[in-house]
UniProtKB/TrEMBL annotation:
GO terms for biological process: dATP catabolic process; dGTP catabolic process; dTTP catabolic process; dUTP catabolic process; response to stress; TTP catabolic process; UTP catabolic process. It is an enzyme of class 3 (hydrolase). NCBIfam families: mazG, PRK09562.1. Residues 16-89, 155-217 form the NTP pyrophosphohydrolase MazG-like domain. GO terms for molecular function: nucleoside triphosphate diphosphatase activity. Its EC number is 3.6.1.9. This is Nucleoside triphosphate pyrophosphohydrolase. Keywords: Hydrolase.
Length: 251
């Protein structure tokens, strides 16, 4: 990477900045998730390398600016792992994974005592929306702001769905109405994330899987229509729905 960034290096690599590389970091992280879903070690190996490249790239940019090096990043990480696992590297005892996580969060909070503190601190605003909602809810739950059991979020989902329908039925006649409709839809999504947390489902991954399932079935729909000599767009909704149901039963 130092060579690629040097005067005899690559013009593209030389012109990159921390900001210009942001979309690539996100893209590579999602490609790692895809490889994990495929359960392909070879693909995972490749994608982890691509993700690591982004870490190396950012560290090189920082080194050129005199801020820190890749060695500094690794040293800080190593120290953090030791510091936040006293039950492994010291003589503290914890019982189970949940206690280990709670201990990690407590140590993390003490480390940041000099910063303005909130129970919800530490969740990046740049997270995907479903992931951020999940993380925020989990942090609130750690201080007791949570439903006692799963019927709470189930009832809240029903309530939020009814409010969404009520706003829609009242009519969307202005930008304010559209914003209210969006707000109610967001509340419904937030409640669904809460249910996912109670069911120990990762909403971001669940939605990714459902989207991929839709893509697979839709492509099969296109293939089946083509096999009949038909163009999918020429079929009626009822005909497409029939093919869709047939595909669901087949797969």
């Amino acid at each position: 990477m130092r060579t690629l960034r040097s005067e005899r290096g690559c013009p593209w690599d030389r012109k990159q900045t921390h900001r210009s590389l942001r979309p690539y970091l996100l893209e590579e992280a999602y490609e790692v998730l895809e490889a994990l879903e495929e359960e392909s070690p070879a693909h995972l190996r490749e994608e982890l390398g691509d993700l690591l490249l982004q870490v190396v790239f950012h560290a090189q940019l920082a080194a050129e600016s005199g801020h820190f090096t890749l060695a500094d990043v690794l040293a800080d990480l190593n120290a953090k792992l030791i510091r936040r696992h006293p039950h492994v590297f010291d003589n503290q005892e914890v019982t189970g994974a949940e206690a280990a996580v709670a201990n990690w969060e407590a140590i993390k909070a003490r480390e940041k005592e000099t910063e303005p503190c909130s129970a919800l601190s530490g969740v990046p605003t740049t997270f995907p929306a479903l992931m951020r909602a999940e993380k925020v809810q989990a942090k609130a739950a750690r201080v007791g702001f949570d439903w006692p059991e799963v019927r709470g979020p189930l009832a809240k989902i029903k309530e939020e769905a009814e409010e969404l329908v009520a706003v829609w039925e009242a009519g969307v006649k202005s930008e304010a109405d559209q914003r209210r409709l969006e707000e109610e839809f967001g509340d419904l999504l937030f409640s669904l994330v809460n249910l996912a947390r109670f069911l120990k489902i990762r909403p971001e991954l669940a939605l990714l899987r459902s989207t991929e399932k839709f893509v697979r079935r839709f492509r099969c729909l296109e293939e089946r229509a083509a096999a009949r000599g038909q163009d999918l767009s020429a079929l009626t909704l009822e005909e497409m729905d029939q093919l869709w149901e047939e595909e669901k039963k087949r797969v």
